[in-house]
Amino acid sequence: MHEQLTKSFTINGKSKSTLNNYSRCLAHFALHYNKSPEHLDKEAIDDYLFHCKNQHNTPSDSFFKHTIYGLRAIYKLLGMDGQKVQLPEIKRQNDLPVVMSLEEVKKLINAPKYLKHRLIIASLYGCGLRSYELCALKLSNELLEVPYFIHL
After folding, report:
1. Rounded-to-integer distance, Cα 54 and Cα 48, Å
2. pTM of whole model > 0.85?
3. Which is nearest to 40 in space by CA: 8, 60, 67?
């Protein structure tokens, strides 16, 4: 089933990390019952989701979410869309992002002692980069313009 899921994710342009997260959660599920999820009834799935929700209660409930999304993916892959198990809806967070004031941004960027560290923070913040994206930058990468906040 993992090969089918990998093929489906590749064709549909889903990321490798999503596949890994879904696979990991589905493996936990299968190990819990010593059975593949498609062979379980609604009650067993609900019991596992209840166990999962209580055991992995994090602010984002990511393990719980990945388990549900993984189940949806394999049910779709196996043609079990109208399957008897109705997975719960996952509520989206509607909180607005916290936006820092210009003064807070200046304090953040100027906090490190060394210029190198200030440039790292300024690049992460101003370009919206993830840390691994920043690490992958090379001198040969072209920057269209220097972000305004570096001049603070």
Report:
1. 10
2. no
3. 67
Please enumerate in sequence order all residues whose Cβ is within 8 A of that of 93, keeping only pairs 6 or more positions apart, or say none.
Answer: none
For 43-47, which contacts have Cβ atoms below 8 Å and span 24 or more sequence positions? 45/71, 45/85, 45/87
Instruction: Count Cα neighbours of 133 within 13 Å in the Cβ-side half-sphere.
Output: 8
d(CA 110, CA 122): 9
Please calculate the CA angle 44-32-28 and round it to the nearest 5 degrees: 110
Give the model's pLDDT for residue 84. 46
Yes or no: say if 73 and 10 are a contact pair by the CB < 8 Å rule: no
Half-sphere exposure of 142 (CA within 13 A, CB side): 1
pLDDT < 50 stretches in the chain: 84
Q: Which domains does the chain have, with CATH numbers?
A: 1-83 (1.10.150), 102-136 (no CATH)
